[in-house]
Amino acid sequence: MKFNFFIPTRIIFGENCIKENSNLMCIGKKALIVTGKSSKKNGSLDDVLSVLTDNGVKYEIFNRVKSNPDIENVLDGADVARKVEADFIIGIGGGSPLDASKSIATLATNSIKPEELFANMIKKRPLPIIAIPTTAGTGSEVTPYSILTYDKVGSKKSFFSPLIFPKVAFLDARYTMSLSYNVTVDTMLDALSHLIEGFLSVKYNNFYEYLVVNGLNSLKTCYKNVLDASTDIKKLDFETRELLLYSSTLGGMLIAHTGTSVVHAMGYSLTYYKEIPHGRANGILLANYLKFNYDSEEYKINTVLKLLGIKDIYEFEKILNELIYREGKIPEISIDELIKYSSIAIKASNIANNKKSVTQDDLLDIYKKSIF
């Protein structure tokens, strides 16, 4: 037996965890808070500012993170970090602000070109990072990845370094209570895809079983409750919000070791070209990804379905469609566009994490069956 498990992030989970563990927020003298616009509305930013102020820690706020941050966006943030002489970063938000915070922390101490960043050519230690997720899906608070839009390749691209694991992650489901139905579903599907792709990855080891079993078991309760509350998502209770956040973090811990696979490689083009939210793009592809892999991964796929309390892949597909299409259709996509997306996805490094060999024609077939 061989395995390698490394999560250097201290995880603080629970209601009011920031104020109850304020000493862990103060890891420097001046913070650059990297966030979007929603952190002011959901209470997370107020909690952070309160703790920093009470402890005499100075701060500046960079709230210009795009919904899909690109190189220019994070270079802008890094420039601000240097100008204000921040010595640590606090990322608040969904996957975009958290991923941006890792890139900003890296570029604040490293004057490197985009190609060097994506080649993991980091010479100086990034600024330390505190991560505060306000959605439940990406698991970025416990991963060594930063994913950015990269126009040069017409897709998203990631860089990896153990140096960008956040030092501390604060997880308080109160910050997710105001999420819309669409964001709740999209982020839940991202967590689901992490758990499934990680489980089916060639890098998976039975040591990670706890993450898969508990993550998927939690989502079994969550997806049913989300569907029940679809007409009024405000009725979704705090316990379900906590389970969603818990599942997301377990999924993040899993892919920190296994990476993602085919679904993510394919989903990036749907987001880049058609602006389909990342988790939703994954959800559109998941059922046909499982169908494609069933002959080589029958036991694992049946285990996934059992943990989710679902009879077979076709029932799984029906549930996904009900979640995804309740709020409308996806943009029209032509065959020519799918051919282009397939040609991009086949070049992604995470394709190699799939046990069954994958060709560009296979990817096109999954796209067609998922879209049409």
Automatic annotation (TrEMBL):
Signal peptide: none annotated. Pfam families: ADH_Fe_C, Fe-ADH. Residues 184-370 form the Fe-containing alcohol dehydrogenase-like C-terminal domain. It comes from the Bacteria. Keywords: Oxidoreductase. The keyword Oxidoreductase applies. Residues 8-172 form the Alcohol dehydrogenase iron-type/glycerol dehydrogenase GldA domain. GO terms for molecular function: alcohol dehydrogenase (NAD+) activity; metal ion binding. Belongs to the iron-containing alcohol dehydrogenase family. This is Iron-containing alcohol dehydrogenase. It comes from Thermoanaerobacterium aotearoense SCUT27. The lineage of its organism: Bacteria, Bacillati, Bacillota, Clostridia, Thermoanaerobacterales.
